[in-house]
Amino acid sequence: MPTPLPPDYHLHTPLCKHAVGAPAEYRAAAHARGIEEICFTDHVPTPDAYDARHRMALSDFPTYREMIAALQDENLPKVHFGIEADYYEGCEDFLRQWLPAQNFDLVLGSVHYLDDWGFDSPDELPRWSSVDVPSVWRNYFDCVVRLANTRLFDVVGHFDLPKKFGHRISETTLKAAAVPALDAVAAAGMGIEINTSGYRRPAKEQYPAVLLLSLARERNIPICFGSDAHQPEEVGHEFETAIAVARVAGYTQTTRFEKRRPQPLAL
Ligand code: ZN
Ligand code: FE
Ligand code: FE
Ligand code: ZN
């Protein structure tokens, strides 16, 4: 029997206003791909006006909970309940009281904004032409350090997201910018995800790059896998490739999360 594909821990739902397909269809797609465990991690609702266009309202959250609970039966794949929570200046007071009250299996921590700039949004792509690209990367990883230092999240989502549209920097600059973030993630006991949505973008590879993944491995940072599916067809996308990349970086295990407790799982 071949080892099944690793759990897919990054799935969205239409509640975020930019994904399609019912959760049951994501689950069916996972089953067809040979994935035995999934976690829905839709974009977190926020109490302020932060990026309201790309997420559920707080008043939609009970619907999200019920949609996922309806899939938590004896059938495979097993369905977990998670959230992709944004780290941004001012997020902490709300998240510190709200996250622990929800009984999540997994909390992804993601940086999608630098100040008022949604740097990974196609709508805000023009701004890339008026910024200093290495500075954006440094600011981004400074945010990841602060994210890790909050101790609010389990796993960093799409660890090198600024490459999404192809805005690359030299390996030397990348390493210098990313190492403090990797150290902070290791110190926080967090994991990072291998997010395969990068294969569907101009980045044309998984997040993070194999260089960063090797540095994560050196620090014993656990990994998990996520397709960041915004439609059922994307579940488990390029997982075979991502597993090969993880092996190149030295990984032999992925991670299961239940009630936010990590457990190693053979790759
Ligand atoms: Zn999204
Ligand atoms: Fe994200
Ligand atoms: Fe996502
Ligand atoms: Zn995402």
Task: Describe this entry's structure for a reader.
The chain has 267 residues and is an alpha/beta fold. The protein has one domain (8-266): Metal-dependent hydrolases (TIM Barrel, Alpha-Beta Barrel). Helices cover 30% and strands 18% of the residues. It has seven helices and nine strands; from the N terminus they run E-H-E-H-E-H-E-H-E-H-E-H-E-H-E-E. It has helices spanning 23-32, 61-69, 92-98, 133-150, 171-187, 210-218, 239-248; strands spanning 8-11, 37-43, 78-86, 106-110, 155-156, 191-195, 223-226, 253-258, 261-266. The strands form two sheets. A seven-stranded parallel beta sheet has the order 1-2-3-4-5-6-7. The chain has a two-stranded antiparallel ribbon with strand order 8-9. The protein is globular. The two termini are 14 Å apart. The site of one zinc ion has 5 residues, from loops.
Secondary-structure map:
Blueprint: E1 8-11, H1 23-32, E2 37-43, H2 61-69, E3 78-86, H3 92-98, E4 106-110, H4 133-150, E5 155-156, H5 171-187, E6 191-195, H6 210-218, E7 223-226, H7 239-248, E8 253-258, E9 261-266
The structure holds zinc ion (2 copies) and fe (iii) ion (2 copies).
Residues 10, 12, 84, 228 line the site of one fe (iii) ion.
Structural class call reads: alpha/beta
Can you tell me the CATH architecture? Alpha-Beta Barrel
Low-confidence stretches: none
Number of separate structural domains: 1
Overall 3D shape: globular
Oligomer: single chain
CATH topology heading: TIM Barrel
Number of helices: 7
The percent range for strand residues is 15-25%
Elements, N to C (H/E): EHEHEHEHEHEHEHEE
Radius of gyration: 17 Å
Major beta sheet, specifics?
A: 7 strands, parallel
SS elements, strand count: 9
